[in-house]
Amino acid sequence: MNRLDHSRSPRRGTEDAPARIVVLASGSGTLFQALLDAAKDDYPARIAALVTDRECTAEQRAREHGVPVERIMPADHATREAWNSALAAAVHQHSPDLVVTAGFMRILGESFLRACNTRIVNSHPALLPSFPGAHAVRDALAHGVRITGTTVHLVDDGVDTGPILAQEAVPVMPGEAEPELHERIKEVERRLLIEVVADVVTRGVVIDGRKAMIP
């Protein structure tokens, strides 16, 4: 059951008054870099802050672009609930219109989702609902699929279970290994995430049961 209230849309961003985005990341930050690069041009959103759960390359990318960095490590908090509260506080202080999880390797708790009080968008390297979780590319290859891809979806309190905003297929080449396939998926993933974020902040999202539509 989806317990997250998706009724609130981000304010409408424009090139003259871009929406504020807080990005959550855990790794190399290539999706984060794609958003940074898009924001240099005529784009309806700007990166207000990066929030991480560990030391990672994404932090270096943020500092090189003058983006504030907040590191909220689970080990520094006594409970998962306390970490979720600290994470929500770190995000809230940057007043985001939209939160984007871009390679963030943690499940966001229901308390964080309630406290965040804005839409959260995630990018996943598979065609959901197939192959959720941290090893989507590996799992797709192990299953022997001929087509995989990427999904951009809203975040709820499940594992990659939120309403889908957009998907794009990527064919699996014969004999292809996980690193090569993952890199080809990432190329599509970066472009699709940029497009969907722009659509969400300019046009909003309408929820109808399991369906998420950008009008």
UniProtKB/TrEMBL annotation:
Q: Which Gene3D superfamilies match?
A: Formyl transferase, N-terminal domain
GO MF entries: phosphoribosylglycinamide formyltransferase activity
Is Ribosomal protein among the key words of this record? no
Its UniProt entry gives the catalysed reaction(s) as:
N(1)-(5-phospho-beta-D-ribosyl)glycinamide + (6R)-10-formyltetrahydrofolate = N(2)-formyl-N(1)-(5-phospho-beta-D-ribosyl)glycinamide + (6S)-5,6,7,8-tetrahydrofolate + H(+)
Q: What is its EC number?
A: 2.1.2.2
Name the enzyme group at the top EC level. transferase
Domain called Formyl transferase N-terminal: residue spans: 20-197
> Which pathway does the record list?
Purine metabolism; IMP biosynthesis via de novo pathway; N(2)-formyl-N(1)-(5-phospho-D-ribosyl)glycinamide from N(1)-(5-phospho-D-ribosyl)glycinamide (10-formyl THF route): step 1/1
Q: Which InterPro entries match?
A: Formyl_transf_N, Formyl_transf_N_sf, GART, GART_AS
Q: Which positions are annotated as binding (6R)-10-formyltetrahydrofolate?
A: R80, M105, R106, I107, L108, N122
Q: Name one GO cellular component term.
A: cytosol
What Pfam families does this protein map onto?
Answer: Formyl_trans_N
Positions of the record's site feature: Raises pKa of active site His: D160
Kindly identify the residues recorded as the active site: H124 (proton donor)
Q: Which SUPFAM superfamilies match?
A: Formyltransferase
Task: Give GO terms for biological process.
Answer: 'de novo' IMP biosynthetic process
Keyword set for this entry? Purine biosynthesis, Transferase
Output the superkingdom of the source species: Bacteria
Family statement: Belongs to the GART family.
Its biological purpose: Catalyzes the transfer of a formyl group from 10-formyltetrahydrofolate to 5-phospho-ribosyl-glycinamide (GAR), producing 5-phospho-ribosyl-N-formylglycinamide (FGAR) and tetrahydrofolate.
Q: What is this protein called?
A: Phosphoribosylglycinamide formyltransferase
**Species of origin:** Lolliginicoccus lacisalsi
